[in-house]
Specification:
Strand order of the largest sheet: 1-2
Largest sheet: 2 strands, antiparallel
Strand content: under 5%
Mean pLDDT: 78
CATH superfamily of one domain: Cytochrome c-like domain
Helix content: 55-70%
Order of helices and strands: HEEHHHHHHHHHHHHHH
Number of helices: 15
Number of strands: 2
Shape: globular
CATH architecture of one domain: Orthogonal Bundle
CATH topology of one domain: Cytochrome Bc1 Complex, Chain D, domain 2
Distance between the termini: 24 Å
CATH class of one domain: Mainly Alpha
Bound molecules: heme C
Structural class: mainly alpha
Length: 338
């Protein structure tokens, strides 16, 4: 695996982007315009997310199982430290906490800590950077399955294969080969956010190009779609209540573990449901994205139970459900920190 993040701005983030728009406090006058999709702050967040996903390939039970992977992880955390230091003066608020959290990641990686510890440290640093720089780690609307299908066939299938098996002529000529989304071991390390980052920045040292010419919404559609592809033909069991934020940032492994902790009878089948159905459930017209989580659950349940309701009735229910969701919003937010 090669994922080399350059410090140079990503070609000025071709096509100003909305997905990672600034929010919260206004930056000081000296700071650059709001950090955007493809910015260095986004790059730092992507890098931390990447280390969280790939560190388990390098170290197992305190032992280095792949020296090349380990060397790469050490290199990345060093890079994350200098990126954070470079970004600190541009932050809207003091970045001491971020610097400390990134240093913590580095010392754990250098100390060959357990994968779960490193992942947790990476998530803490990532979440701090997301807050500090006003980034987003989820789409601003539900992913569109129809759009993703068309874009995938047009831009990705040539290398990754129509069904995600990377079984094409082009793929056979590439080293490293394109990711096989249907390989469960690969999928376990992938989240839509990570796929989104690969689409934004490309994967240096491989044939995976940057697709930053696509809009953020299009990249998110594709990011969710490749995770969906991986689960085709699998048994699914739903509905399951998972927020869009969690769907976006959790790898399959993390989601399976979370669902197991919550008592899901068959966590693997529940993840298959989330990736195939839950992520793409539409909210009734006029309902904001924050409310689609609950509505997604509701509609999933209706479908699951084979009940058909009129659109009007569903909307009434959605409104009722909204109140309940607001009350559980705090729990959802706290659960975002993995
Ligand atoms: C020219 C060939 C090519 C095309 C076209 C291509 N990819 Fe890739 N892609 C690759 C290769 C090669 C890798 C493997 C990189 C590696 O080993 O880390 C890859 C890796 C990925 C990954 C995994 C990144 C990670 O962090 O592990 C994702 C997700 C991905 N591609 C999505 C897409 C999508 C979506 C499209 C279409 C918009 C696309 N790719 C188009 C060659 C391609």
């Amino acid at each position: 695996m090669k994922f080399i993040f350059n410090m140079a701005p990503a070609a000025a983030a071709v096509g100003a982007c909305l997905a990672l728009s600034a929010c919260g406090a206004a930056p000081p006058a000296a700071a650059p315009a709001s950090p955007r999709d493809g910015s260095d702050a986004h790059r730092l967040v992507a890098l931390l997310d990447y280390v969280a996903g790939d560190y388990p390939r390098a170290v197992r039970d305190g032992t280095v199982v792949s020296p090349a992977e380990y060397e790469e992880q050490v290199h990345f955390v060093g890079e994350a430290r200098s990126m954070a230091a470079g970004l600190a003066p541009t932050a809207a608020a003091p970045a001491d906490a971020l610097l400390a959290l990134v240093a913590d990641v580095e010392s754990r990686v250098r100390g060959r800590a357990a994968a779960a510890e490193v992942a947790q440290a990476c998530r803490a640093a990532r979440d701090e950077a997301v807050q500090l720089f006003g980034l987003r780690t989820m789409p601003t609307r539900r992913p569109s399955l129809a759009d993703a299908r068309g874009d995938y066939a047009q831009s990705c299938a040539v290398c990754h294969g129509a069904g995600g098996d990377a079984d094409t002529e082009r793929a056979a000529a590439l080293d490293p080969p394109p990711t096989r989304f249907r390989d469960p071991a690969r999928r376990d390390d992938l989240s839509p956010f990570r796929a989104y980052n690969a689409l934004t920045f490309g994967v240096a040292g491989t044939a995976m190009p940057s697709f930053d010419g696509l809009s953020p919404a299009e990249r998110w559609d594709l990011a969710f779609y490749v995770l969906r592809l991986g689960h085709e033909d699998e048994a699914e069991r739903g509905p399951v209540t998972v927020t869009l934020a969690d769907m976006a940032t959790r790898t399959d492994r993390e989601m399976k573990e979370a669902l197991r902790r919550e008592g899901a009878a068959d966590p693997a089948a529940a993840v298959a449901w989330v990736r195939r159905e839950g992520a793409f459930l539409e909210a009734p017209t006029g309902v904001g994205i924050d409310r689609t989580i609950a509505i997604g659950w509701l509609e999933g349940r209706q479908r699951f139970q084979g009940r058909r309701r009129s659109q009007g009735r569903r909307r009434v229910q959605a409104r009722r459900f909204d109140a309940r969701q607001r009350s559980c919003g705090r729990r959802i937010n706290s659960r975002q920190r993995l």
